[in-house]
Structures are given as structure tokens and as C-alpha cells.
Amino acid sequence: MPERKQVSLARMQTRQGGVVVEIQGGHGLVNRLNALGIRPGKRITKVSSMFMRGPVTIQVDRAQVAIGFGMAKRIIVEPD
Amino acid sequence: MKILLMGNPNVGKSVIFSHLTGVRVIVSNYPGTTVSYTRGLMKLGEDTAEVIDVPGTYTLETTSEAEEVALRMLNTGDVVINVVNATNLERNLYLTLQLLERNIPVVVALNMWDDTKHRGIQVDLDKLREFLTVPVVPTVAVTGQGMKELVESIPGAASPDTPPRSRDERWATIGVIIDQVQHITHRHHTWFERLEDASVKPLTGSLIALVVLAAAFLVVRFIGESLIGYVLDPLFNTLWAPVLLRLSDLLGGTGFLHAILVGKLIGGEVNFLESFGLLSSGLYVPLAMVLPYIISFYLVLGLLEDIGYLPRLGVLMDTIMHRLGLHGYAIIPTLLGLGCNVPAILATRILESKRERFIAATLISIAVPCAALQAMIFGLVGQHGIQYVAIVYGTLFIAWIILGTIINHTVRGFSPELLIEIPPYRLPPWQTMLKKLWMRTYGFLAEAIPIILGAVLVINILYILGVFGAIADFTAPVVTGLLGLPKEAVTALIVGFLRKDVALGMLAPLALTAEQLVVGSVVLAMFFPCMATFVVLLRELGAVNMLKSAGIMISSALIVGGILNLIL
Questions:
Q1: Does B110 lie in the same domain as B228?
Q2: What's the pLDDT tens digit per position in B9-39?
Q3: Which residue range forms the structural domain that includes residue A60?
């Protein structure tokens, strides 16, 4: 089976959807994202990203969450 | 009995809280904690129960200081009303499951119930009750719908014997519940949602931010000036001035009592800015100069808060704020500071680290003038032309950026990244908006007017006793030499510790040039916080950091004031 392409949330295209596969971070980051409903297996859609490595906004279910660029780099997504 | 209102942030806990406790609300801030709780009382059958509005938390696996305190609070409660956002059930249920695992009876308020319909979400209430085995009451907090049922359900609160689960087990359980309880019908994006998305995109978002901020500024000025020009000035000039003149006659036009009540007559007339008596300037400053701007500012701020625009502004400002050692969300306390620095400094608790709170609180006390001071800046400096007002604001803005950059590079540590939920746009009901406006306006009237009158009284007595003259001679080298102000201006700087609006008002009788007024306004804004802000700063930062902060304030005020004096 060919391995599917994976990118970080920071590098995803705007308006692209995908499924979170991994959060590359310590316990603290995993916990905080988990509390906002962002966890492996969750479908998300990227809404926007600010210029100059600004925050990334995503849609998770009925909520929008803004995530700093550094954190977004550590959220690995399998885009559709 | 102690009832805790708990739930994710921004689900309507406080609205439910005010419904439950009504007018008999005792608001108290717990000292020593990082997050404030609001407590109130409610009638429950024959008894009175204590209700606590616990700040929002996503999880009991504490990830922040705020959540740690919320967890501690949980151990002291008897019943939890878990407020759940019905339009975002899945994520909200995570906290619900955690609460059910603990040994405390729970009732679930399924809030924003009306929103589920127009969002195409169907929730099977009976099935949800079956899964959770606790009372579930649909509510619409803004209209008060379901409040009666919620209160009636409290005695039936249950604590199912759920064993503690792991995180993955919880999500698996939630998956099963959502699958059976919630049904979502697909529907197209509304224009509201398009606007939501556009506000966080770089180009459209910046454009929207510019329009919103410019409109906010213009509306605040328009309403403020109209209230002054068409309502309050005419009232004071045509109705109150003749009364004061009669009083002046009765008092014989001179003497101690005359000086304190009416103040100095200028050309035989009461001059509300310069007379400086209790009943002349003492009333005119708070009621005719400051109050109109308090009303207009809080009307516009309340609208922006209730619509849900501010977090989006935070996203847009994030990159800039990082240069000041903060992240975008710090824009919220900063904007609050334009109203009053006290709630602004309390609001810095939404920031994660001590370092951020120090930076934000220091920058707010230095470079963010409160509405009262701004009203006086517009009133006094504005008489010489709007360009001078612009210089004051420009200087404060540049000081904000430069100081923030310096502090960011000198204080050890780093600034955490932004991670916030962005609420959907909502059209706030006008009743809630007016209620909030009234609470804030009343807060100003109740807290500021006694201090203003007290300040005017003390100033007059000290003036008569000649105390200010001695101080003025002593500080003349700095005030006159460095800042280029008449030596008497030092009294304004001292009074600035009481109220900055009164302090700036004290510069009015000194016949300053426009440039001197600019220097005076900037120094007064930056120099030292007013008493109320000082107390909050001391409590929030601790004595050592407060001293550091004060050092930064005084030195930067003198440096900036000196530079302005040289170049203007």
C-alpha cells in the first residue's frame, strides 16, 4: 500500500481539509490541543493563515480555533 | 449548598449565573488566585444556595493555571451545573465525562439550544439523558428559556458511578454518544459565516480590521461629542452656571467656603474648566467631560465584545504582538485599557505566563490612556487643534511599541504561542448590551465621582494651605528644566495618582501652550498609574514586579516627556 502524503498544518493549503494523524509535541501541547478537540483521527479544515508566520485558523466541527505558527508546524495532517 | 457553574469557555455560564442569582449578586474577587470567581445567591426551595461562576475550562487535566484553580474549586462544591454548548456537543462532552467520573452530582444545561436548529443540528435529548444518566435541560440563556426547569432539576442532580477513564476511552465513548444522539444536516455557508472566515484571512481581515477600528473611533467620538455639545454643555451652561452664580453671591463672592464650593470666578463668571470648585469643575469634569466618552466608548466596546470580533483582531495582531513579548490575545486587555486600566489589568489573567502578564500590565499602565484621561485630552488638547491630539496618541503608540520591544528583549523567558477558540459571530440582543453599558457606566459613576470630588476638595485645601507651592519649588528642576512645564504643573502629576482626569483638568488654569499641554498629557498618561490601577497592579504583579514596573513607568515618562519638550 502506498504511503499517503502527510504535511504539517502550517504547510497545508487554505480551504483544504484533512485528518490529523499526529501531534509532535510534549504532553502539555498534546493536552491543550486535545482539550480543544484537536487530536489524531479528527477531521479539520484550514480556514486561513496570516502572513509572516502568523497564526493558522482551522475549523474543527462547529468551532474555529486559531493556532500559533510554531504549534501548527507540529500538527501533522493527512490532506484529502 | 454550593453550586458550581462549569463548562467550556464562552458557552454562556455567566448569563445563566445572572439569571439564577438575579439582582442579589455579590461580586467578589478571591485574593491570591489568578482567576476571579463570581459568587451569588439563589433561592432553592426553602433554602438559599451559593452559586459560583467558575471560569471556563476545557478539561480537568489541568493545562493552565486557570484550570488548576477551577479544579481546586470543584473539590469544594456540592453540585455542578455543567453548561454545554449544544452546537458543539462533541468537544463539550469531554469535560462532561470528566465531571461524571468525579464524585459530585451533575446537572447538564444544554445551552444555545435555539442555535442548533438554524445550524442544522438535531440532538436526541432522551438518548443523551440515557447515556449521561444525569438530568439534561435544554436552555437558551440569553432569553432565559429553560431557567425554571434548570433550577427544578438541581435536586435531581446525579453522580453516576463512572470509573475514571483514559483520554482515548473518553473520546471513544463520546464517539458512540455523538453517533447516536446527534444528527447534522448539511447546509450552505451563510453570509455570516463567510464574514467570519474573511475576518481571519490576511487581506480581507486587515481590511475589515481597519474599517472596524476606524468606525469604532468615529462612532465613539461622534456620540461623545454629541452628548457633550447638545446635552451636557447646554445643561451646565444654561441651568447650572446661574445657580452657582447665585450661590457665589450668597457666599459673598470670596472666602474659604466659596473657594472650595464654587472656586475661582473668572471675569465674574463660573468657568467650569478653570474655577476648580467642588460644584463647578468637580461636577463638570466627571459628568460633562468624562461621562459622555465613558458611555460612547463602552457602547462600542460592548458591541465589539458581544459580536465576537475581538478574538479575530487578536489573530490579526498576533505577529505584531509577538514583537512585544505577547501574543495576539493580549489585544483584548489592551483594548479594555482604553476604557479603564483596572479591568484591563485583571483581564491580563487570560494570558498564560507571568512574564506575559508583567509585560501586558506594564504596557497598559504606561501607554494605554483610560477613557477618562482620553476624554480630557480631547477636551483640553483638542481645543488647540486635532493635530496635537494626534501627537499625544502617536507618542503613546510609539512608546508602547518601543517599550514592549525593550522589555521583551530584557526580561528572561519567551512568549507562548496563540491558541484560542474563535467564537461565531452573534448579534447581541440590545437589552443585554444596554445592561452591560449601564453596569459599566454605573461603575464609573459610583467609583469615580466620590474620588473626583474628594480629590478636588483635597487639592483646594492643600492649595489654600500653601503645600503645593513648597512642592513645586522643590521639583522645579525636573518639571521646568526637563519637561518645560511651569513648576505648578507638578501638582497635576501628584493628583494623577488620585484621578488622571482631574489631574489633566488642573493644567487648564495654568494657561499652557499647545505644546506644553501635549507634554503634560503624555507625561501624565505614562508617569504613574492612578490609585485604583496601582492597587490592582500590586495585587496582580506582587511587590517586586510592581517596583520594576513603576521604575519603567517613571523613567520612560521622564525620557519621553524630555524628548517631546526638546522637539516640539
A1: no
A2: 888 888 899 889 884 443 322 222 334 678 8
A3: 7-79
Predicted pLDDT at B36:
66
What pLDDT does residue B415 have?
82
Q: Where are the alpha helices (DSSP H) in B411-542?
A: 430-465, 467-476, 490-495, 500-507, 514-527, 531-541
ipTM above 0.90?
yes
Q: How far is the C-alpha of B337 from the C-alpha of B533, rounded, in Å? A: 10
Res. B391 pLDDT band, cuts 50 70 90: very high
The number of distinct structural domains making up chain B is 2
Task: Give the list of residues 6+ apart from residue A73 with CB closer than 8 angstroms, or none.
Answer: A8, A9, A10, A11
Q: Name the residue type at position B313.
A: L
Backbone angles phi, psi at B400, to 5 degrees: -60, -50
B220: cell is 465613539
Strand partners, A43: A19
Confirm whether A58 is domain-assigned: yes
Q: Decide if B45 contacts B39 (C-beta within 8 A).
A: no
CB–CB of A66 and B314 under 8 A? yes
Assess whether B161 and B257 both reside in one domain: no
Residue A31 contacts B, CB cutoff 8 Å: yes
Find all residues with CB under 8 Å of B190, minimum gap 6, and list them.
none
CB B194 within 8 A of CB B122: no
Residue B342 sits in the same domain as residue B410? yes
Distance, CA of B166 to CA of B302 (rounded, Å): 41
| Distance of alpha carbon B431 from the chain centroid | 20
CATH number at residue A17: 2.30.30.90
> Highest mean pLDDT range out of A29-43, B225-239, B304-318?
B225-239
Report the alpha-carbon distance of residue B60 to residue B95 in Å, rounded: 7
Say if residues B35 and B69 touch (Cβ distance below 8 Å). yes
Query: In this structure, what C-alpha cell is assigned to residue B162?
Result: 463512572
Closest CA relative to residue B412, chosen from B505, B325, B323 = B325
Q: What is the DSSP letter of B158?
A: B
B372 to each of A37, B53, B342, B379, how far by Cα in Å?
42, 30, 12, 11
B309 contact A CB<8A: no
Q: Indicate if B107 and B211 belong to the same structural domain.
A: no
Axis crossing angle, helix B531-541 with helix B354-367, rounded to the nearest 10: 170
Using the 3D structure, point to which of B153, B184, B215 is the last residue of a domain: B184
Q: Select from A39, A67, A69 the Cβ nearest to the Cβ of B171.
A: A39
Domain with B303 in it: 202-567
Q: Which of A14, A31, A47 sits opposite B63 (nearest CB)?
A: A31
Q: Which of A35, A48, A53 sits opposite B200 (nearest CB)?
A: A48
Q: Is the Cβ–Cβ distance between B262 and B248 less than 8 Å?
A: yes
Mean pLDDT, residues B337-344 taken together:
92
CA Rg, chain A, in Å?
12
Phi, psi of B258 (to 5 degrees): -60, -45
Query: For B240-278, what is each residue's pLDDT tens digit?
Result: 999 999 999 999 988 999 999 999 998 899 999 899 999
Cβ B139 vs Cβ B110: under 8 Å: yes
B119–A55 C-beta distance less than 8 A = no
Q: What is the DSSP string of B160-207?
A: --PPP--HHHHHHHHHHHHHHHEEE---PPPHHHHHHHHHTSHHHHHH
Residue B189: phi, psi to the nearest 5? -60, 135
CB contact under 8 A, A61 and B94: no
A75-79 and B182-184 as β-strands: parallel, antiparallel, unpaired? unpaired
pLDDT, tens digit (0-9, with 9 covering 90-100), for B502-520:
999 999 999 999 999 999 9
Question: What's the one-letter identity of residue A21?
Answer: V
